[in-house]
Amino acid sequence: MPIADFAASALRTVSKHNAKKLKRKRTTPPITDHIIKNVKGDKYKVGFASRDVMPDDFGTTVHWVAGHGPGHKAEGIHDPITVSAVWIGCGDNGGFIMVSADCIGITNSEVDKIRDSLSDFSKKSNCKSINICCTHNHAGFDTVGYWGKLPKTGKNNAYMDKLLFAISEICKAAYYNRKDGDIYIGSAHVPEAQMKKRPPEVLHDVLTRIRFVPDDGGAETWFLNYAAHPNTLGGANRQISADYPYYLRKTIKREKDVNILFGVGAIGAVDPGNFCEDKTERTKLQGECLGKAALSISDDEKLECEFTVLRQPFYIPVDNSVLAFLASLKIMSSKRYPFDKGELGLALKTEMTYIELGKQKILLLPGENFPETVYGGYLSAQDSSTGDSPDINPEPLVSIAKDDNLLVFGVSNDMTGYVVPPNDFILNRTQPYLSNGNDRFGISHYHETNSLGILAQQTIADVFRHITERMNCSCT
User: Fold this and answer.
1) What band does 476 get if pLDDT is binned at 50, 70 and 90?
2) Element (H, E) at 313
């Protein structure tokens, strides 16, 4: 037996054994429906705060670059890592917080640490929800754990403490900086800024801009959303950077005094545009392209001063024996529970958050959804990698929402990997989750190795359907 086959088999065996041990130690508590929170007012009250977060010991302590394989030491700084927060409230009746962080992701365990540190603040401010959206930056520090020198974690504890503290502080600062004003939403198509790595050629090329205009004429605050991996600097890069979001912000700020946050959409297998071969120049051009598109939006629509928010935790089955093993070694933080679905008998506790801002529906998802799981356009049985019909795939999220304009923020409040449609899900036959599998057309499938498993999409669709049903009932 080849050594990789043996390793994959051993990992499955160990992960199943660990799940059984976990079952003897821990019960899996049922998850109840969380409360739907609705707030109305006469005027939006919005605040912004931002901070660069760089380690104090860079150059004397090893830091690892996340996103392109393990063991890449950071060798220099190209531009700073930034965290930004916006408070969105309806007058003094309550609000919610959205954070954008220039990092590969933050696990739900760490998100809850941030929320716990802000518990007193949340009560005093009447904060209904705190959400951490990560740009999924592939040139930042390892904030999840598995991009270090395995089998040790790649997270630097001192830096993680500094990062989580900085996020907590800007959340409070955003609240104290709030001003009265109006919120507008608009969009632009930017097809040249993305490309799909594998079929089908389903791309959502819309750049969405949520724009707050304060009554006092001060700086506006923009929260931008677009679906393209911030991986433009490439796997050979060893310079710490925010990747193209840095140039996006820089481009806008050259033209207009604006506070800017950025979040990614459904980025599964979606790369930035191929503007040129030089990766540094390509990164700059990607950011400039999106920045100019954001500046060009002129037909945005004013939103009524009302929001609804529902944060719903849920269990998602874990079939990925490699990720399960790394979690058992505490390489990354996770909330693992025994479960009655899936190959390993293991689940991860995660969450999604649904928001209605005025009439705009927004869904915060923990992973990297393939665009077709959100917008439809599945491969036919003839073209699919498995030969299976798209009928085996769950209903796309926009269909569940009954709204083609559903705005999705990925890698939000957790980092759970790729979400791949079942009829396009291929694993290596003898080395599942350890090595790429090849489909019947000879196409290599990488993304499945960094997914939780084939049940991920169905789980997400089921939870979102339950949310929409509850929302519909609350409106009647």
Assistant:
1) low
2) strand 306-317
How far apart CA 293 and CA 210 sit, in angstroms, is: 13
Lookup result for tokens 């599998």: 437
Rounded to whole angstroms, the Cα distance separating 307 from 37 reads 8
Two structure tokens written together for 287: 């950011």
Taking the C-alpha atoms of residue 272 and residue 300, their distance in angstroms, rounded to an integer, is 25
324 phi/psi in degrees, rounded to 5: -65, -40
In the numeric block, the tokens 């800024």 are attached to 193
Amino acid 265 reads G
Average pLDDT (114-121) is 98
β-bridge mates for residue 352, sequence order: 312
**Please, are residues 64 and 29 in contact by the beta-carbon 8 Å criterion?**
no
In the chain, the N- to C-terminal Cα span, in Å, equals 61
What is the distance of C-alpha 15 from the center of its chain?
Answer: 26
Whole-angstrom Cα distance, residue 258 to residue 243?
A: 19
Question: What values do phi and psi take at 385, rounded to 5?
Answer: -65, -30
Strands 368-369 and 407-409: unpaired
CA–CA gap between residue 152 and residue 37 (Å, rounded): 41
Spatial contact of 379 and 418, defined as CB atoms under 8 Å apart: no
